[in-house]
Amino acid sequence: MEIIVLVVALLAVTAVCVAIGERWKLPYPILMLVATAAIAWLPWVPDYLIDAELILPLFLPPLLFQAARTSSWSVFRTRWRTLLMLAVGLTAVTAAAVAGTVLWLVPGIALPLAIMLGAMVAPPDPVAVEAVAGPARMPRRLLTVLQTEGLFNDAVAIVLFQAALGAVLAGQDSLGPGILLDFVIGAALAVAIGFLVGFLYRVADRAVTSVGARTAVSVVAPFAAYILAEEVHASGVIAVVVTALETNRRARASDGEARVTRAAFWDVVNLMLTGLAFGLMGIELRAVVLAEGTDILGYAMPAVVVCAVVIAVRFLGMLALAAATRRTDPLPRDWRESFVLTWCGMRGLATLALALSVPTFATDGSLIADRGLVIVLACAVLLATLVPTGLTVGPVLRLLGLQDDGSVAAAEIRELTGRARTAALGAIRERFGESEELSGEQMRMLTKRFEGMRREIDTQTQAIRAVRPDGEPLDPEAAQKAAEQAAQQAAVRKKVAKGRELMAVAQTVGLDAARTEILAARSEPGVDPEAADHVLRQLDLQIMAAPPRSRSKKH
User: Fold this and answer.
1) Can you give the pTM of this predicted structure?
2) Alpha carbons 530 and 137: distance in angstroms, whole number
3) For 389-404, how does the pLDDT look when each residue is reduced to its tens digit (9 = 90+)?
4) In the CATH scheme, what is the code of domain 2-404?
5) Are 225 and 200 in contact (CB under 8 A)?
6) Three-state SS string across 206-258, please?
7) What is the pLDDT of residues 472-516, one digit of tens each?
8) How many helical (H) and strand (E) elements, i.e. helices and strands, does the chain have?
9) DSSP assignment, residue 546?
10) Is the omega angle on the peptide bond into residue 27 within 30 degrees of 0, that is, cis?
11) Which 8-state DSSP code applies to residue 473?
12) What is the C-alpha to C-alpha distance for residues 310 and 308, in angstroms, rounded to an integer?
């Protein structure tokens, strides 16, 4: 019962934080973290202990799945150098730098434990980035870098953490030499599992007609990919991301109603899970403080130094990325963009979950020394990179003149809309031929003519009702004329109905072609998946508003 009360309470606080965030232009996940961390200290609030091993399996699959669905394979093909440098290179370098710093600050700490700390604090959180940077109107090109990096750096960090954890539990002073090979094998298995689950997802999705059931399939998919990958000691993170990308690649134009329903459902799920995740972070921070007691004050100096190292390494990494991409597509372009990408390197769910999963005892039953230090330092980095930065992303973007005015996205949406219009008109011409081509002007004329005829028919119908009580017409000649007019009007109604049906069918043919074009464009290099999704959603809504008869016709 306690867990139900906790979930309901956190959802209620989430709703309040969302309302406050919208009113004051603040990111609600940060408000959730601060609010729950404060509420947890109230004397009447009971202690809630969350199994650390459940945090990642419960929250990471759906949140990663939703984040990855806003991307596409073309983004990874275009940005593969950036992906390798940030998700793999920068994550490993950050972990090594933090481990070296801790070894220098804390003489006697075991090397594997120091590497565990480095792995905990190395990966920025894609969930935090998505929730904070997007509403702050960060330029889309920078947000894409952060999203792409965040989808895979957790995988690198988790593999490194697990290797170091094995050494700590075994009482060893170093890591095994096969860590790189283990990562490569695990990543390859995860990719294969992601493709398999993505294929099974589409099979199941096409086998059912219920929109609700198809939405349920989208909920099962990320958990299935994650659990299956973890069971074979592969990367659950990579498996979920590949599954999400595959489900997008296999999308069909005719899936409009299910696509709109799923999008609305996942928007709600994403908000609820993000609120729950950040709320649990706030609650668990209290448990960390209570566990360490007054010893936590002695960790202040190492915490400040480690936070500074994490931020400095990320800034240097962004400068290195700018130098490496200068000849092709420079990203970041200057020190301002490097600073913003550094400022938005927020740690979150993975950092907390890994920190809380550090065991108290080794395999032989001995106490793991410096465990408390490692957990406190990880939480310090989480707070330092999440709260002040998350609350100031918007002002920093405005100060540096980098806040997005929406012009780039608008231009791309206009271009995609033009492509959709061209595809729609081409499909209509091909279907109906030049002689029956329905231009926009003809459609408007047909609608206007129908409205005029409807008023005329109504007026004339009233005239025909001028009969005697016995049913005989007042004027036989007028009755004959009215009958002829009625026949003409019936022919007009039939013609108009046929015209309206033809127009509706033509609209459906055009919208189907337009959606097919946008789905193809979404996979093209250089096309922003978010812009394509925006146009696709508008087309889906239009087809859903079309007459049911025209939607049901086979094309």
Assistant:
1) 0.82
2) 14
3) 999 998 999 999 998 8
4) 1.20.1530.20
5) no
6) HHCCCHHHHHHHHHHHHHHHHHHHHHCCCCHHHHHHHHHHHHHHCCCHHHHHH
7) 454 556 556 666 666 665 665 565 556 566 767 777 878 888 899
8) 22, 0
9) S
10) no
11) B
12) 6
